[in-house]
Amino acid sequence: MKFKLKKIAVAATLIMGAIVAYAADPIKIGSVLSVTGPAAFLGDPELKTLQMYVDELNKKGGVIGRQLQLVHYDDGSDANKANGFAKRLIDDDKVDILVGGTTTGSTMSMVPLVEKANIPFISLAGAVVIVEPVKKWVFKTPHTDRMASEKVFEDMKKHSISKVALLSETSGFGNSGKKETEGVAAKYGITLVANETYGPKDTDASPQLTKIKNTAGVQAVFVYGLGQGPAIVTKNYKQLGITLPLYHAHGVASEEFIKLAGPAAEGVRLPAAALLIADKLAANDPQKAVTTAYAKAFKEKWKTDVSTFGGHAYDGLMLAVDAIKRANTTDKAKVRDAIEATKGFIGTGGKVNMSATDHLGLDLSAFNMLEIKNGDWTIAK
Predict the structure, then answer these.
(1) What does pTM read for this prediction?
(2) In Å, how far are 81, 166, 246, 336, 377 from 269, measured between CA atoms?
(3) Domains of the chain
(4) Which of 138, 210, 216, 360 is deepest in the core (most CB within 10 A)?
């Protein structure tokens, strides 16, 4: 009898030990980011943000009683590498959720894998194709390229601009932006009188800009790209003496763009999240507390300026954490459902209201039109 009781006690101890060990298992956040390569100035602040807030959350006790573990890989701005790393995160690292792809190309290369594996994926990339048509397991945090085009055209219409030259990048983001811009132009009474492209690795866009300069009737130029390309275009624009209003998409919404473009960035207008103007928001703005706290923490930790791209990572991580808390589990299906049920979440990008038909949850009011003046972001008039 004593032997039997001893066996039961040992078995109970082993079971309790297993339960404790299971409870102590970290929640694995998987991420594939473009920390190097042409999209590095997007991916670098994204990684810094994820690292900073995973550490902060862990210091506060983690999430649902478990620590977070960030498992990340750098795709070097290469969509093919992103696919391989996503496979590794799912099959080998056994992550609970994915936050990242930096670019549209990288994101879309990962989508089939996450859909097949039934794992929640919150992308940090811009193109509308990521969430339209809706994909069951895929969500995103940045405003879409279609929204950017609409916000730009709203501003142009306000300034009686109707004939526009489009210069887009031949990247996943640029191609999607071109398509969406062409698709909404007529809605705002805009005619694209010139439509040129440049490569993401091009070091000079003067030939395309010269064509635009010589096109009759052009009233403004709209550049759609990300990374270093738009800064090169902006410098070329100045060098060619083009004085027409210059608009960019949200792919340049970082201090790095201003640094790269230098004085040529003066007067550039673009749609961006409130994060870039956190200190200029009204005291009663619901985003004021979130954006100022993030900007302060990021600057203090990394000794560098914030970008909306780091903000996208903050939103992605916090949406994931919020969903895990509400689901009170890391069960992938339950977390997915909780993300989709997100309502009234205030992030750096705006107020998020997800649904079964909307895996972004932002509307056009979440965008601000900005103008670069004296090397700083200002609210456009």
Answers:
(1) 0.86
(2) 34, 14, 7, 37, 9
(3) 21-143+287-362 (3.40.50.2300), 145-272 (3.40.50.2300)
(4) 360
